[in-house]
């Protein structure tokens, strides 16, 4: 049966952009499962599956509803063990959590701030109002414009923080080794988020992290490229 | 047959301190293999096994010599597959590399600088001369004393950089999940390095990273505690 996946979009429905939803889309593609993508703007997230979850991604697999990208990956791994593994064993499962926490605490804070205004500009008006209000509260009242204006100044430090990933990629083409695993999709989700919503050049040409990201965009018939880059 | 492991020591032979050698000792203990530890001061590393390796750890397993802590872990995993796995499968193997690069680039620079003078003070005189000379060259001529003096000032930033590890440990007791894997020993090695050679308090009481480190010190009959902490 086709799995439904609910994904965050802005005003352009062809441009799903949530990092966490992309982790799930890549997980489903990795498993070779049939799935249907359902676009959900910010202000309609509470309506998904009659309010079953507070956040997306959510998947419906028959009568099962699962939310949270990591929990979804674990669910898919347990439910479809005969399909390609998302973790490569229990050790990969445990350390994917470390990769997730690293990505969340190293990459997300910079992207969240740096792309904030670009994301806002690509939402439908009703979502823009929600987004501005919730994000400015989260930033102690600082405007989106003020937070985003530090992007250039903070960029060099961000590139330096990627060094552990960059160095890992000098040993192997993917975080998962010779081929990608969920650990890759965790970090891919973050880069895809800004690729789709922010025209800023986050990675310089020749950066091994950019080469890795390009390899990820090529996976599964280029499903990542199906969402156009922000211009 | 008993495996020989060559380990770096200072003036006190009961205090092996190299982070990389500790990774190997923990790997051997994890596999439940018999091994004999051979103490090597800095200036005798070039003499180990007739100059077979430029660095320690080195292990001799029958007629096989293996160096580099990661390569040794891979060797042990391949050679003794029937014993407890160090990686928990191919995914764990691949992402252990990421943990290694993270540890090397996040923890080691601070520890290397912060403990530099304490390490020097715990070496035999001939090793002290080598250590001061090589480390001051590496630091563009800055004295050990000058580098070490920044310890307190840099400490808060270091504690912040541990956040991905700290957060991971709120999900699971070890980086490897419910029980430790080589990924744990990678980070353990770094903390053991400074525990054994530097009396500075690197982690505050109550830090989940300290609790994890204590759990690691308890492993394998407390082999980590067999080296006394610096006083």
Automatic annotation (TrEMBL), chains A, B:
Any one biological process term the GO annotation gives: glutathione metabolic process
PANTHER family: GLUTATHIONE S-TRANSFERASE OMEGA (PTHR43968:SF6), PTHR43968
Species name: Pseudaminobacter soli
Species classification: Bacteria, Pseudomonadati, Pseudomonadota, Alphaproteobacteria, Hyphomicrobiales
PROSITE patterns: GST_NTER
Name of this chain's protein: Glutathione S-transferase family protein
Gene Ontology MF: a single term: glutathione dehydrogenase (ascorbate) activity
Coiled coil segments of this chain: none
Gene Ontology cellular component list: cytoplasm
Domain GST N-terminal, first and last residues per copy: 8-84
């Amino acid at each position: 049966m086709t799995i439904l996946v609910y994904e965050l979009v802005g005003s352009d429905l062809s441009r799903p952009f949530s990092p966490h939803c992309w982790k799930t889309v890549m997980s489903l593609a990795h498993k070779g499962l049939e799935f249907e993508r359902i676009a959900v703007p910010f202000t309609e997230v509470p309506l998904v599956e009659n309010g079953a979850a507070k956040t997306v991604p959510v998947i419906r697999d028959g009568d099962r509803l699962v939310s949270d990208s990591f929990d979804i990956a674990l669910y898919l791994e347990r439910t479809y063990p005969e399909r390609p593994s998302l973790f490569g064993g229990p050790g990969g499962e445990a350390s994917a959590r470390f990769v997730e926490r690293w990505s969340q605490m190293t990459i997300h804070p910079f992207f969240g701030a740096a792309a904030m205004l670009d994301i806002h500009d690509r939402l439908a008006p009703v979502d823009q109002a929600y987004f501005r209000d919730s994000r400015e509260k989260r930033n102690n009242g600082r405007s989106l414009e003020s937070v985003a204006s530090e992007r250039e100044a903070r960029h060099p430090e961000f590139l330096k923080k990627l060094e552990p990933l960059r160095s890992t990629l000098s040993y192997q083409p993917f975080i998962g080794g010779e081929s990608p695993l969920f650990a890759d999709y965790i970090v891919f989700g973050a880069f895809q988020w800004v690729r789709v919503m922010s025209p800023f050049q986050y990675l310089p040409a020749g950066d091994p992290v950019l080469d890795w990201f390009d390899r990820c965009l090529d996976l599964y018939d280029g499903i990542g490229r199906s969402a156009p880059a922000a211009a």
